[in-house]
Amino acid sequence: MLRFTLRRIFQIIPTVVVVALLIFVIFSVVPGTFAASLFADGKRAADPQMIARLNEEFGLNKPLLERFVAYVTDLAQFDLGTSFRTRQPVIDLINDRMGASLQLAIAAMVFALVVGVPLGFLAALRPGSVLDTVTMIGAVSGLSMPQFWLGLLMMYLFALQLNWLPSFGYGDGSFRNLILPAVTLGVTPLALLARTTRAGVLDVLNADFIRTAHSKGMSEAKVVRWHVARNALVLIVTTVGLQFGSLIGQAVVIEKLFAWPGIGSLLVDSVAIRDIPVVQGTILVIVLWFLVINTAVDLIYAAIDPRIKQE
Predict the structure, then answer these.
(1) Secondary element (H or E) of residue 69
(2) Within a 10 A sphere around the Cβ of 125, how many other Cβ atoms?
(3) Which of 42, 48, 145, 281 could form an S-S bond across to 80 if both were Cys, CB 3.0 to 4.6 Å?
(4) Residue 1: its pLDDT value, please?
(5) Is 116 helix (H, G, I), strand (E, B) or coil?
(6) Which of 79-88, 125-134, 298-307 is predicted with the least confidence, judged by mean pLDDT?
């Protein structure tokens, strides 16, 4: 198990290096700079001397190779750079926003788990029933529905029409402010979990060892508890890990829509003003989060099914 764990952890390093290289190259060739964006609103006439001075101050006038060496050197020291706009370390800006993003992602995942897994499980135990049909229609609808459209719909219904919940903002971090963005973000993983759970449970129910357990006189409840649930858990855990790892990235649109102060909204704001260090650092953290969660899922997967370690 230790060798398997170390192998999975060391696989993260080359992936992070490649992603960092791609991020640097992409944002180095994108037109526009932070200095130029200061005059993009048209309220002030562009000052070429000021733009040149700011570009020199931020090192944007240096050769690409020199900037890349400096970027990699800083990354090796866990330094994500300094924001062009606030002049604060990027890591501090991300730390200030990460808590809100984690809160939103965890709430969305809990919502998806609590609703999606039981629905998929019950639908598989009663294939062809009304519950099965309604669950699958809802799952397909949830996967097909754009999150931003669902968010606008929920804001209109529950905030503007019924006045039950605040429409946007973090407020004091209360549960009421979290409900709408968390439910909006959680609908897609909920739908996927319901479909995956149903497929996994049906696959286990049709296995030979389940028929053997029934033929030995084991009750339906015991078969489901001791055989079906455990064997279907592998697929469910994998789906949960993949979805939870990607929720931070998926939350970019939701955070901006609901004015949620997470790293997603930080990324969107930074792209708009070409604050490249913040953009690069935020994307790198999102990718690293995804890789760490998936590595953790691999380890849980191996603990549930020891055959994985032999592959």
Answers:
(1) helix 64-76
(2) 17
(3) 281
(4) 64
(5) helix
(6) 298-307
Q: Where are the domains of the chain?
A: 98-310
pTM (two decimals): 0.80
Tens-digit pLDDT profile for residues 190-221: 998 988 888 888 877 777 777 777 677 766 67
Report in angstroms the alpha-carbon separations of 259 from 99, 168, 183, 229, 263: 15, 6, 15, 39, 11
Give the CATH number of domain 98-310; options: 1.10.3720.10, 1.10.10.10, 3.40.50.11810, 3.10.150.10: 1.10.3720.10
Q: Are 181 and 260 in contact (CB under 8 A)?
A: yes
Residue whose C-alpha is closest to residue 182's, from 240, 246, 102, 265: 102
Q: What is the DSSP letter of 310?
A: G
In contact, 107 and 244? CB cutoff 8 Å? no
- Asked if 124 and 194 touch (Cβ cutoff 8 Å), the reply is no
Structure confidence at residue 107 (pLDDT)? 92
Length of the chain: 311
Tokens 């609808």 -> residue: 141
